[in-house]
Amino acid sequence: MDRNKHCAIEECIKSDLFIEGQVVLFVAKNDPKWRLEECSRNFADLTGYSPKEVKRNKLGILDLVHPEDKEKFIKDFYQVRQEGKENWGFQNFRLLGKNKKPVWAEIRISLIKDSSGKASHFIGYLIDVTKITENKNLFETITELVPVGIFLREDDRIIYANKRSIDIIGYTPKELYRVKSVFSLVHPEDRHIVEEIIKKRKDGDSSVITYRIRIITKDGKVKWVQITSKTITYQDKELGIGSVQDIDRVVNLEFAKNVLINVNRAMLSVKDRYSLLDAVCDIFKEEELFNGIIIYEVIDRKMSPVCVYSKKSFLKEINWDRSPEEKVLTINRPLYLSNIERLKGYEKWKNIMVKNGVKSLIILPIKPDKKDVKYVISLYIKEKDYFSKEMLDIFSEIAKDISFTINHLKQEEDLFFKEFYDQLTGVGNRAYMLKTLEKYINKNRSFYIILLDIYNFRYINEKYGKEFGDSLLKTLARTLDKELVYENVFRVGGDEFAIVTYSDDIYSTVNKIRDILSSLNVNGKKLKINFNIGISRFPEDSRNLHDLLLKTERVLDLSRKEGKNRISFFEREKYNSIIDTLSLEEKLERAIRNDEFILFFQPILSIKTNSIKSFEVLIRWKDGEKIILPTEFIPVAEKTGQVVEIDRLVLEKTLNILKKWKDKKIKFPTRKGRYKTVNQLKFSVNITPKYINEIASFLESLSKNDLKLLKDHVVIEITERESLQIYKEKDGVDRLRKLGFKISIDDFGTGYSSLSYLSELKVKYIKIDKLFINKMLRNKKVHRLVQSIVNIAKIFKIKTVAEGVETDQQLEELKKLECDMYQGFIFSPPVSQEDMERFIVEDKG
How sure is the predictor about 6, in pLDDT bands with cuts at 50, 70 and 90? Predict the structure, then answer.
């Protein structure tokens, strides 16, 4: 190296500029160990070696590189040299200094040539990046521990993704970081969502945003994910940080549940089997997943289509006698072809499918008599390997429900009355809304209620005429009901609608409503409908239905006063509500620990003999001198899981009563004052549906004698749930039956139950809800419903129990309808154990 140049570099290195600081200058010889000839005084801060020690020990850069990093370090350098470059940099490697403690560093060097052109020396600098690297490592370690995907985005590229993100998308980290734009990972139909969010970010919105989109994995599979993202500033760069969750299973089950609910609704509104099949066809036509649907009628083992729909009319090309549907006639069960391209045979049919984007097929046999296939439903799916086992189970249940309905259609009464629907729009009316909300409140199910009012609707009627106004209401109701898939829509006034949603994402629901109102096509006219909206939430804003509706209506009034297109929420401090809930939870824990619960009993009597047959067991909480009803504490206990202990306590207390009266002959009074001797004291005990399996496990843990005593004297009552809940409960119900318990369905007729589950669950009793008993003498349709329930029960050889009987007229009518048993204030309200035992007279014969 030129002597003058060397002196100038040496003088620079030794200047006061480099006494301290993170940048360390050096000159090294181009030899096997890169021996250091000069280094700045702050070299000691980085490595622990002073410049004198470096020269004395003849240290080189490669002496200090950590052994685990050295090979990669040298390999990278020589690769750059082979490319003819004279400058080289290397990041994130470790130096081992005097104390052998690793220091993370970054290096940059340039070659210095001598007069002969030979690269004899390096000049360069080292930077201590330990703090930055450790922070980065800590961030990466933390993100690897969380159960969700974490990613960093710079512009349109992913610059970091943790292992969970990699698992979701299917790409390796290197492959993912090479992807030029995140848009290539997003399903084409959802890219506009990402575009809108990126635009918001560029406009300065740095808030947390949560959204659902479909992505395309490395193997080409479409997958639903939920992303929550936020903009941060790091090292003067605007970065997007976010989490990603695989919600494919959740979305698919929501889809299957929605189909199931729509099919069950259709069952309750049709009058003949062909109307039912048309309705089922219409339901599947509306689903984006299906490219086509065929419903066949099977006569003499030959299939004839009764409903055909395909998005490109490609199903018209099919030869009905040469398609996979014929297999179902032989195997007599549902068939799922998860990937059509792997199917052997049916080549012409397969070519038509592949050409029109059909990748899988589910074929559902409809067997009204549970033996022979009478109809076949084929659903042509545009995704391969889409249906999970849970989805297949639900679609198999749909086939069973359709089979059951076709078989019993002529015997059934219309279980959904005209009085519960708005005659103009076809959506639920105010009465149905109240009935629905009462059910949700009784089950302590959280929900929002949205009151929507059309702004200045009178002006629309005056300008366009009443007929047009009616068309507007019908179109709006139909569009709301169609687009708000997971919400219930009701017309509750002349130009007022109510929307009830369980979703916590209320803003998403409101935005959907606004989108619908912004462009409504009525009789060929595109209208922007002005509106007012008032919103409240159960249980935060009120636990009382009347009070909740009044508050929502007040909020709507406030919205109207503020002008058109205003959205108002009911607001109040929620602190007291939270404290009350926590306080009640703590009190319940104490009550369970101290056994502060007592039992009350209501007699169940034979309608035929008017004698007591059993007692329904009802729980009360004795908090000091105060008796607390279950409606006040069971909802909290269900939320916290404490209800399992409460159910167990009820069964234990019932067992103790049975032990007390074991082997004793008992006389029960009748309504006529006479006594009837019985051999057994019997009880009905309610358990929480969500925790059936926990209760089954508790019963299995009892001794043989205790279990026998309970199963011989106790009927287990389960409150009727929505259809999807039944699937979750089936295994638990089966466990209870196998233990020997008889099963009763409580509040029958009030839920969205599948019509076929009565026979499948093999229940022994159904209890007719007191709502129907109260109305049956005043309302002919309710009377026919009660009669239908009794008749259906007889078909399945199930005993019926009428709840809430209060008058002799009700009891006399139930006797005519051949209902088996009743309970209610006409004989006795719920009474304490002491009073219950007064009903019992020991026969000492």
Answer: low
Residue 611, strand partner residues: 670
Which stretch of DSSP H or E encloses residue 488?
strand 487-491
Q: pTM for this structure?
A: 0.38
The closest alpha carbon to 106, from 124, 121, 83, belongs to: 124
Q: What residue ranges in 329-372 does DSSP mark as E strands?
A: 335-337, 360-366
Q: Supply angle C-alpha 797, 800, 806, rounded to 5.
A: 165
Higher pLDDT, 707 or 751: 707
Only one residue has tokens 């048993």, namely: 821
Q: How far apart are CA 524 and CA 623, in angstroms?
A: 65
Give the Cα separation of 572 and 308 in Å (integer): 54
574 touches 542 (CB < 8 A): no
pLDDT at 32 over 70: yes
Report pLDDT for 410: 46
Q: State the burial class of residue 580 (Cβ atoms within 10 Å of its Cβ: 0-12, 13-18, 19+).
A: exposed
Put residue 641 in one of left, alpha, beta given phi > 0 → left and psi -120 to 50 → alpha. Answer: left
Residue 767: closest CA among 780, 755, 758: 758
Query: Measured between alpha carbons, how far is residue 409 from residues 368, 542, 583 in Å?
Result: 10, 41, 51
Closest CA to 612 of 664, 709, 685, 677: 677
Beta-carbon contacts of residue 153 (< 8 Å; ≥ 6 apart) = 159, 182, 229, 239, 240, 241, 242
Inform me whether the pLDDT recorded for 321 exceeds 80.
no
